[in-house]
Specification:
Elements lengths: L1 H4 L4 H19 L4 H20 L6 H38 L7 H18 L3 H19 L5 H16 L13 H20 L9 H20 L4 H15 L7 H25 L9
Helix pairs in contact: 2-3, 4-5, 4-7, 4-9, 4-10, 5-6, 6-7, 8-9, 10-11
Length: 286
């Protein structure tokens, strides 16, 4: 536990170190290994947020909380898109006995990332964000040698945004019933599978990326949009979607052009409204 406490900034450790150590011992007394590991990860995450100034009381922490649900949406939609592309390549390789199932492990990594993003948006933010981070990190490791880091590293950074979101500002899911979450998941699976089985011509091919994005935004709901109170927060939330939409398996040019126009216009409108309604001295942006 001493090593964990040392992760905190010196001043914070001197003031609260004994309290943190006591809380950790109380939480892990007689606990199994998975519980001890989970508590240690929580402490390490809190220490990292304190060192980076990403607590809920800081402007950076509030901005991170505002971006977190949109990061989860982007991570999930991108992971599903890449899993679909690499899964198709794996099937082709097996059938033709060409190079074997070379993409099997990257597909598994993307599916783990997708599951993590879904769990986070469905209300299990802590476990979901960590699972997404593990899957994204595995994807980076598996694709680094092949030059895939151009896209997998930014995805890993978005998963890190999810993990570093201050716990007391974690997104609250709009759909809180199990039936509602299952309905969204089933709708996404059916529509996405149909698009895979019956590919549409351009520009409708972009629906294979747009459908999971829409599902993720539905799970995030109005509370996520309500936190975007400044133009920079809107741009930071939307730019990753543009970046990964331009990646293989993403959106067609016409979709990207529309988003490229819509995003700055929306940011400008939110910025103007924010300046009109924001109380004097308030720092918004998440």
């Amino acid at each position: 536990m001493t090593a964990l406490v040392k992760l905190y900034p010196t001043a914070y450790r001197q003031e609260f170190g004994d309290e943190i150590a006591g809380a950790y011992r109380e939480a892990t007394r007689g606990a199994a290994l998975p519980t001890r590991v989970r508590e240690a990860v929580d402490v390490a995450g809190h220490a990292l947020r304190m060192r980076l100034g990403l607590g809920s009381a800081t402007r950076a922490g509030r901005l991170l909380a505002a971006l977190a649900p949109f990061a989860a949406v982007t991570v999930g939609a991108t992971a599903l898109s890449w899993a679909r592309l690499m899964g198709r390549a794996t099937v082709t390789a097996v059938v033709t006995a060409d190079v074997g199932p070379a993409f099997a492990l990257p597909v598994a990594a993307q599916l783990v990332t997708l599951l993590g993003a879904f769990l986070a948006l469905a209300g299990r933010w802590a476990v979901g964000s960590r699972l997404a981070l593990v899957g994204a990190a595995a994807a980076v490791a598996l694709t680094w040698a092949g030059g895939g880091a151009l896209f997998t590293v930014p995805l890993l950074l978005l998963a890190l945004v999810m993990v570093l979101c201050p716990p007391d500002l974690r997104p609250v899911p709009r759909i809180r019933t199990r039936a509602g979450v299952v309905a969204v998941m089933a709708w996404t699976a059916v529509v996405t599978s149909a698009l895979v089985a019956l590919p549409l011509p351009a520009p409708l091919g972009g629906l294979s990326f747009a459908v999971p994005v829409a599902a993720g935004l539905l799970l995030a709901g109005r509370p996520a949009f309500a936190r975007l109170r400044t133009a920079p927060s809107v741009l930071l939330a939307g730019l990753p979607l543009l970046f990964f939409g331009a990646a293989p398996g993403g959106l067609d040019v016409i979709w990207l052009a529309g988003l490229l126009v819509l995003l700055p216009v929306t940011a400008a409108v939110v910025g103007v409204r924010g300046r009109r309604h924001r109380p004097a001295g308030r720092t918004a942006g998440g």
